[in-house]
Design brief:
The protein is α+β, with helices and mostly antiparallel strands. The protein folds into 2 domains: about 180 residues, Up-down Bundle (Four Helix Bundle (Hemerythrin (Met), subunit A)); about 45 residues, no CATH class. A hairpin with a 4-residue loop joins strand 4 and strand 5. Helix 5 packs antiparallel against helix 6, helix 5 runs antiparallel to helix 10 and helix 6 runs antiparallel to helix 8. The longest helix is centred in the last third of the chain and has 33 residues. The radius of gyration is 25 Å and the shape is elongated. The relative contact order is 0.15.
């Protein structure tokens, strides 16, 4: 047996002559990385779900995220819906970039990959704006009343005071004014210790910052990688190799971060 092994060249013995599953080793390792990353995101979202289930109050997405750049408040989930749409469109442009690579269409790869990068930049910038708005809070903040913490808001063009106690409980009229006048503390904005959106559950902001930040880091990394691949395509690096497999590899990663956002969007904004 030892003599038989000695007769095999090192290239044949260690090279493998091709990867398992009839895909390249590069794609195979990318899939392994994505599976491990999926387990990480899954664990984070599961922990978020348990925390929310055990809490007595929790922010309502359409009330917490209702601002639009340059337009102010009053647009429930509109901006985050736009962010999500742009990210999904960027996934489509990535598919078209990979398809162009299969046809060895260099100009097509450059065009669609550039649009993917633009979409990624828009999403990351929008998420940064959302963080800024979330940290600074609403115009009026929250107050600690005799009935507990409540988010302060005004309706009817700012004439009538309402207090939002979470879980859809809203107090208005004279009762709201009485509770507001007797408030003993105020809170505005959000950080890792407290947040006006749900003062009783400060872990909400912790989960929001960590999970959306972790995902945002993935998107930003994907934008940087896509930009590097785009430069290499323009320089003709993959023309010399005779294939655009690298575009397909980074495409797998980009589709993954898009898919993860669908779950993050559902957990934090819709449910």
């Amino acid at each position: 047996m030892a003599q038989h092994v000695d007769n095999i060249s090192k290239e044949e013995l260690w090279g493998g002559n091709g990867s398992p599953f009839r895909i390249s080793y590069g794609k195979q390792w990318m899939w392994m990385f994505l599976v491990s990353d999926a387990l990480t995101f899954g664990s984070l979202l599961t922990a978020y779900g348990f925390a929310r289930h055990q809490a007595d109050a929790w922010p309502i997405g359409e009330e917490t995220f209702n601002a639009m750049p340059f337009l102010g408040d009053g647009y429930p989930l509109l901006y985050v819906a736009l962010m999500t749409f742009i990210l999904i469109v960027s996934s489509v442009t990535m598919v078209l970039a990979v398809e162009a690579g299969h046809r060895l269409d260099k100009k097509g790869v450059i065009k669609w990959l550039l649009l993917t990068v633009v979409g990624g930049f828009f999403f990351v910038g929008s998420q940064a704006w959302e963080w800024y708005h979330f940290i600074h809070g609403t115009h009026y903040g929250s107050v600690l009343t005799a009935e507990g913490w409540a988010v302060v808001d005004y309706i009817n063009e700012g004439k009538d005071l309402i207090l939002k106690f979470g879980r859809g409980v809203i107090v208005d009229g004279a009762a709201a004014q009485s509770l507001f006048d007797g408030a003993t503390a105020t809170m505005q904005g959000a950080n890792l210790i407290e947040n006006e959106y749900a003062p009783e559950v400060p872990q909400y902001a912790n989960f929001f910052f960590f999970i959306t930040g972790f995902h945002g880091f993935h998107v930003f990394s994907g934008v940087v990688i896509n930009l590097i691949i785009l430069i290499n395509v323009a320089r003709g690096v993959y023309d010399k190799r005779g294939h655009f497999e690298m575009v397909e590899k980074v495409g797998l990663y980009w589709h993954f971060v898009d898919l993860v956002w669908v779950f993050v969007f559902t957990f934090f904004y819709l449910v």
